[in-house]
Design brief:
This protein has a two-stranded antiparallel sheet with strand order 1-2. Strands 3-4 form a two-stranded antiparallel ribbon. The chain has a two-stranded antiparallel sheet with strand order 5-6. It folds into 3 domains: about 90 residues, no CATH class; about 80 residues, no CATH class; about 150 residues, no CATH class. Helices cover about 50% and strands about 10% of the residues. The protein starts with a helix and ends with a helix. By secondary structure, the protein is mainly alpha-helical.
Length: about 325
Amino acid sequence: MVIALILGYGFWRGLTAPLREGGDTEYIYVRPTDTPEDVLGQLKALSGGYVTTYWQMLGTVRPYEVRTGRYAVEPGQSFLTIYRNLLRGHQSPVKLTIPSVRTMDRLAGFLGNKLMMDSAEVAQCFADSAFAASFGYATATLPALFIPNTYEVYWDTPLPKFMQRMQRENETFWQQQQRDERAQALGLTHEEVVTLASIVDEETANNGEKPRVAGLYMNRIRKGIPLQADPTVKFAVGDATLRRIHGEHLRVESPYNTYLNKGLPPGPIRIPSVAGIDAVLHMEDHDYLYMCAKEDFSGTHNFAATFPQHQQNARRYQKALNERGIH
């Protein structure tokens, strides 16, 4: 009897003792194809391998059934606590920051890397018009759904549920800071604001300059002048690395080529930043119709209200390109 009590007490102390004393939080990832032995194997790798007895003993009381998810193993946590979390499906959420990427394929790759999703399947869904329509978008405008903030989501969240979450976050975003009212005052839909913001973001990384760039493009839209935005040509060509736009690029047949087509392109050319979206909603009121990168390669621009002024700016920039051997 005494021996049994001693053994029982020792077992209980082992169950409730810290599995790991120090270090960073580690995670166990449980997939649908995993078996209980696979999960035990991850636990053993984190604990040094001594947990098998505890796993087997607790399994006689309540057998473990696989529940997908990402489970934290924190310093100081006991095996009993971790086992209970695994049993009950008490996961640790992922802090997911939607990236400002240029293509939906890249977003699919990002989601496949961060969540329990297959990137190829996600990319296929993003390119599916019926899938996009089920969330109120066309495939061209689908990037406008994603607001590049940070969200807490569960690692095993399926894509449709994730998309529903993004819908709710999108609605919340537009309700904040009078964004919806400002878009209406400009005569733009949310998707059009995001599309213009994506061009602005591609034109400049300088947040202070973005409202001026947005105002310039709005002036051109209102006057019926083609945007002639080089980033849309790069998107149409499929090469965002182009340093210099040539005549053959400007002639590329594409609805995204704003040298050939008036107005905004069919959809965003990237997932824009929040700063880019807000720059459009708070665009500057001015007379500028032209812009050209500054010849000092500072990443900012010279602006002009007339074409002769713009030609002077363009010549200075082209001279700087030639001097640096950029073709």
